[in-house]
Specification:
The structure is a single chain. The protein has five domains: 14-56; 73-116, no CATH class; 141-150 and 158-233, Trypsin-like serine proteases (Thrombin, subunit H); 240-338, Beta Barrel (Thrombin, subunit H); 344-439, PDZ domain (Pdz3 Domain). The chain is globular and about 120 Å long. The longest helix has 39 residues, at 17-55. The chain has ten helices and 20 strands. By secondary structure, the chain is α+β, with helices and mostly antiparallel strands.
């Protein structure tokens, strides 16, 4: 039997063109609004997010390093002498217009002063200018307070505090690094750092050099406000190789033993040799009134650190003037302490062989050994008083400073060969002594 099927035609729904156009326009407008709002949010938040990222603690701190000086101390001295010679030939008119900033002869100074009318107004302006300059330098300094708690026989807790000044030398993406003398910080239960702005943060001893007593104090960047321009607080390290007697300097920090004190003056004695075990430094004396517990930094007139003031150096003097270690010879030490790297140790005290000793007595140029520490690698290897170190491996050594510089380029546990000239009867004979470098910062 045939059956008829029901057939149904499905017709397409008519397109509402007006509605489609409306939806398309709405979508485009919303996309534009979303893009504009997103761009504005990114534009506003990017600096803030970048600052947070920069100041946040990471697992990989960057290595701290300071650029090597472009000229050696000898080259700087030669350059200064050549320019001084040129200055001596200048007339007073030429000198007045000269931009060279070097020590002048008495005649040149007299010629300059004769053309300057210095009254009370200019004196007051000079003092205001110097005060403003010292305040700018004070931004690089921090006050470090170390607190130690003790309990007396009545079970009462007593807190005692020591205060010293430190200088911000670097940051490594994880922490702010401050150079300070460790004398006031030993055995502290807590340490805090205070900026001149009033900001206070928890601090800790990162590394201490047992020979110089200098320490690197760390402050976590997480404890530093994200809107603080850290770079503007890091002091630029200059060169003490260019310091000369009569040079103007500013002492900042605690030169009088009180945080925030300052002093203006000149260098009165330059390059006094300070020798310690495997250490060679230069000391500079000023006419600035100071204290036996002075601390802080010595700046030149270009806003650069040229010296570090420590209580250890000032306590050894019989007068009350500020003394400082030259920054040039300290840079390598600051780098190693900042990067928590151990410092090579052989246990040798020494001095430079003078030209007179070389010419008249035939002593070879090098590092003259004056003492070796008990049970040090040098003593155990057979280094004797009177030996002259003339080389380390293939490198020549012409002074105690060169010995120290080369030694500190090596790491503890490295094996080296000291080339030593030892007097045998009437002449010096060179011998080679192998030994292993130890560390002068022993683990606690």
């Amino acid at each position: 039997m045939d059956r008829d099927f029901i057939k149904e035609d499905i017709k397409k729904r008519p397109v509402n063109t007006a509605k489609v156009v409306k939806r398309t326009v709405t979508t485009v407008v919303m996309a534009i609004i979303f893009g504009v709002v997103a761009s504005l949010i990114i534009l506003v938040l990017t600096p803030f997010l970048t600052k947070i990222t920069t100041n946040s603690k990471s697992d990989s701190p960057t290595l701290v390093s300071f650029p090597e000086e472009e000229m050696s101390p000898e080259e700087m001295l030669s350059d200064v002498m050549m320019q001084e010679s040129a200055l001596a030939d200048m007339t007073s008119d030429e000198l007045i217009d000269s931009s060279i900033e070097l020590p002048l002869s008495e005649d040149q100074v007299s010629a300059l002063l004769s053309r300057i009318h210095f009254d009370a107004t200019k004196y007051r302006q000079m003092l205001i200018s110097m005060s403003s300059y010292a305040r700018e330098l004070g931004n690089y300094m921090v006050t470090i307070t170390a607190v130690k708690s003790s309990v007396d026989w009545l079970s009462s807790v007593n807190d005692s505090s020591n205060v010293t000044s430190g200088i911000i030398v670097a940051e490594n993406n994880v922490e702010l690094l401050i150079l300070a003398d460790s004398q006031a910080l030993q055995n502290a239960d807590s340490i805090t750092m205070s900026l001149r702005t009033g900001l206070t943060a928890k601090a800790y001893i990162k590394e201490i050099d047992e020979v110089t007593g200098l320490a690197i104090i760390g402050v976590s960047l997480k404890d530093i406000p994200s809107d603080l321009d850290i770079d503007s607080y890091i002091a630029p390290l200059g060169s003490s190789s260019s310091i000369y007697v009569g040079m103007g300097v500013v002492a900042v920090g605690s030169p009088q033993g009180v945080p925030g004190s300052i002093g203006y003056g000149i260098v009165t004695a330059a390059k006094n040799m300070v020798s310690d075990v495997d250490t060679f430094l230069y000391s500079y004396q000023t006419d600035i009134f100071g204290s036996s517990n002075a601390s802080g930094a010595l700046f030149n007139m270009q806003g650069q650190v040229v010296g570090i003031i420590t209580p250890r150096e000032n306590d050894t003097t019989d007068n009350t003037v500020v003394m400082a270690y030259g920054i040039t010879e300290l840079k390598d030490l600051i780098e190693k302490l900042s990067n928590s790297q151990k410092i090579g140790y052989l246990g040798i005290y020494g001095t430079n062989v003078t030209g007179e000793a070389n010419q008249q007595l035939g002593v070879p140029m090098g590092a003259y050994v004056t003492k070796t520490e008990m049970d040090s690698p040098a003593m155990l290897a057979g280094i004797q008083v009177g030996d002259v170190i003339v080389g380390i491996d293939e490198q020549s050594v012409n002074s105690f400073l060169e010995y120290v510089t080369i030694l500190h380029k090596h790491r503890p546990d490295e094996e080296i060969v000291l080339r030593v000239s030892r007097k045998s009867q009437s002449e010096y004979v060179e011998i080679s002594i192998p030994l292993t470098i130890s560390s002068r910062n022993h683990e606690e």
